[in-house]
TrEMBL record:
InterPro entries assigned to the protein according to its UniProt record, in alphabetical order: GlbO/GLB3-like (IPR044203), Globin-like_sf (IPR009050), Globin/Proto (IPR012292), Hemoglobin_trunc (IPR001486)
Keyword Heme assigned: yes
Organismal lineage: Bacteria, Pseudomonadati, Pseudomonadota, Betaproteobacteria, Burkholderiales
PANTHER family according to UniProt: TWO-ON-TWO HEMOGLOBIN-3
Pfam families reported in the protein's UniProt record: Bac_globin (PF01152)
Protein name per Swiss-Prot or TrEMBL: Group II truncated hemoglobin
Family: Belongs to the truncated hemoglobin family. Group II subfamily.
Superkingdom, natural source: Bacteria
Length: 132
């Protein structure tokens, strides 16, 4: 077995389902508490329970753990599911700032936090449907 095959997935490195749930809960808690994320919060339903669950289910699979989201809803089709929302550079950057703060608050090892930030930025940028 090569070193790459033996390396734990980001899901495992984050602490499995408990670690992913902690990250997702911190992300949405920050969105509700921090005035800097008010515009991002306004794009979400009044109750964040469904959003919390969907991001948790998605991130579990995206990070290399169980595919809870796919089992419930099929292929994520992220861009198509986000088309009803006006997402430009400001929204992308606000989402990323909130997630970066959540990653930092969860005490991830810096190399993992940097890797996730880079990957999440690519996905968040792909969600943009407004502006150049």
């Amino acid at each position: 077995m090569s070193a790459a095959e033996a390396a734990p997935t980001p899901f495992v490195r984050l602490g499995g389902e408990a670690g992913v749930r902690t990250l997702v809960d911190r992300f949405y808690d920050l969105m509700e508490l921090e005035p800097a994320y008010a515009a991002l919060r306004a794009m979400h339903p009044q109750s964040l329970d469904g959003s919390r669950d969907k991001l948790f289910w998605f991130l579990c699979g995206w990070l290399g753990g169980p595919d809870h989201y796919v089992q419930r809803f099929g292929h994520p089709r992220l861009r198509a599911r986000h088309l009803p929302y006006a997402i430009g550079i400001a929204e992308r950057d606000q989402w990323m700032a909130c997630m970066i703060q959540a990653l930092g608050d969860c005490g991830l090892e810096p190399a993992l936090a940097d890797r996730l930030t880079e990957s999440l930025f690519g996905t968040a940028d792909w969600m943009r449907n407004q502006g150049g």
